[in-house]
Structure formats: structure tokens, C-alpha cells
Amino acid sequence: MVINNGEDELNLRRGDRVGVVRERSQPMQTTEVTTVPITEEMVQRGPLFSQEEVNDLVTLLNKYRCCFAFNLGELGCTTVIQMDIVDDGQPVVCKPYRASASERDTISRIVREWKDAGIVKETSSPYASPVLLVSKKDGDARLVVDYRKLNSQTVRKVFPTPNLDEHLERLQGAKMFTTLDI
To answer: What is the per-residue pLDDT for 62?
Structure first.
């Protein structure tokens, strides 16, 4: 199947080349993360679930265990995708947002935890984006980076956008729904 995500009409004739497939010169690097199985005690649920539904849910979650992180040490990373920056010679440098002393302490603690977990590392990059704290629903602080300026220099990649109506139709008859925290 070929999808045209551009705005211009494109006519293809038999024999037109639309892409190239190449073998990777280097195997993809993967990091194996040790995880414990998900138990029913780890799953927050409403009182209307039957024991059979809970067991089915736990089985499903464990089948896709690699998709769920319960702590920073279980987060993965990828080197498969690379973002391209428009190189106009000027790196994006934004001054830090103002933060109180307690907010700076929280930011330092979170960054230290991320360093310890291997999520971030020290850099001498000429780029700098500001950070801020946002309160989660449970009151904990979430550290976010404001990449709006950097995004303006990022080359936009076009991917097929799934049809929302088709996805909603697939939910017909579903009995369980969930919300996930990032």
C-alpha cells in the first residue's frame, strides 16, 4: 500500500520507483531491561471488575510487559529514529525560566534521578531549552522541557495519520478502557 500524505496530487505509473529498501549496515542496538511480572496488586481498578476480568487484564499486561514501565529503570530508549534540524548555523538557545528555590531543588533531584537511570547525560551542546515543573494529578511534579523553539527548526516528518473514525469503530463492544500516564 502506498499513501500520499502530501497536499499535491501524485500520479504513479507502472515501474515508478517509490522507495528503496536497504539492509542495515549495523545491527540495531537493544538494551535488555530486567522487569518483574505485573501482578493484580499493581493494577488500579474500579470495584466493578470480576476476578476473571482482572486475571485476563494482568495476563494481557504481562504479554506486553515490555511496553510498560513502573519505574525509571524500566524506561527504554531508541536510536532508531533521528530528528533532523534545519542547519542555518544558529543553535536554539533560550534562557531558563524563573524558578523558586524549592522548584530548583526539585528540578535538580529529578535530573539527578534521570542521570542515574541513564535517561539523560551531561552534554556540551550549544543548544539550550528551558524546563519547568508541571503538577501531576496526584500532586507530584513532572519536569518538562519547552522545545517549541527547537521544534521550529526541526524538519517535519510526514507519517500516515490513522483515520480516527476507523479506530473508534474498533472500540465497538470493548468492555475495558484505560488511561496511561507518561
So the answer is: 93
